[in-house]
Amino acid sequence: MIQFGVSTFVWVSPFTSAHFDLLYKVADMGYDIIEVAVEDKDLIDWKQLRELARETGLRITISGAFGPNRDISSDDPAIRKNGLTYITDCLYLAEAMESPVFTGPVYSAVGKCRIVSAQRKQRERDWCLENLHEAGEIARQCGVVIGVEPLNRFETDMVNTAEQALSLLRDVGHPSLKVSLDTFHNNIEEKSIPATIRAIGRELLCHVQGNESDRGTPGTGNVDWPGIKAALTDIGYEGAVVIETFGAPSEELAKAASIWRLLANSPDELASEGLTFYKKLFH
């Protein structure tokens, strides 16, 4: 059965121990999952978070935030090393929090968009593949799946489509890497989101962030929700569907995701009405 979740990004950036009251709010709304976006792991008391999750009955999923210093395809070896260290830390946290997945644009930095030579593009891809294979082995040891998330053309030049994500998975060649979809990005880049879901299939689709075309409240834009529901049903998807949007982004996050205006009257309204829509759609 599909479970519904909401990201900490909806309310705050970065998420810290000072925001743990969110778990009570999210549980009271009726969500199954809180998705914790890890911008700075040291700002979070992970033991207390796990205890609160158990108290509230929430599951936790872990997502990443990939700024320019966490780019495993960078031409700077120190940045590549830092990126792999960050991914590794998040995989261990996912294991500790019993999150089945760690998702995000793990392959590069958000906002890295350039025209480069084929030679340089291949070199960056090779660095990415090498690091992702190493990360995949750590994920296997942790019992966690890495969800490779395609981003739209305005946020990355490396993986924009599910087809490109699948190509990356084939080249990495590690079973602990799968595909994570964000319907906001897919709505820009894919010809058909339902066809994309069917092309990925049950074995390789590990996570879905079900976001609207403008990142506002799900059900209020032009995303093909009935088609998405039908495709997820057809492949027998039983993972999470999570709202990830940005109610109070940090300056860096706002720039990376191009969030310049409020996307709903309030984060609470977006989360509450989004869940009502999910439940009506999927049940």
Describe the structure.
The chain is α/β, with parallel strands linked by helices and 283 residues long. The chain has a single domain (3-282), classed as Divalent-metal-dependent TIM barrel enzymes (TIM Barrel), CATH 3.20.20.150. It is built from ten helices and eight strands. An eight-stranded parallel β-barrel has the order 1-2-3-4-5-6-7-8, surrounded by seven helices. Helix 3 (77-96) runs parallel beside helix 4 (118-142) and helix 7 packs parallel to helix 8 (225-235). The radius of gyration is 17 Å and the shape is globular. The mean pLDDT is 96.
Summary keywords:
alpha/beta; 10 helices; 283 residues; 8 strands; TIM Barrel; 8-stranded parallel beta barrel; single chain; globular
Shape verdict: globular
- How many separate helices? 10
Q: What is the CATH C level class, in words?
A: Alpha Beta
How much of the sequence lies in strands comes to 5-15%
Topology as a string of helices (H) and strands (E): EHEHEHEHEHEHHEHEHH
Distance between the termini: 10 Å
Tell me the name of the CATH homologous superfamily.
Divalent-metal-dependent TIM barrel enzymes
Sheet/helix structural class: alpha/beta
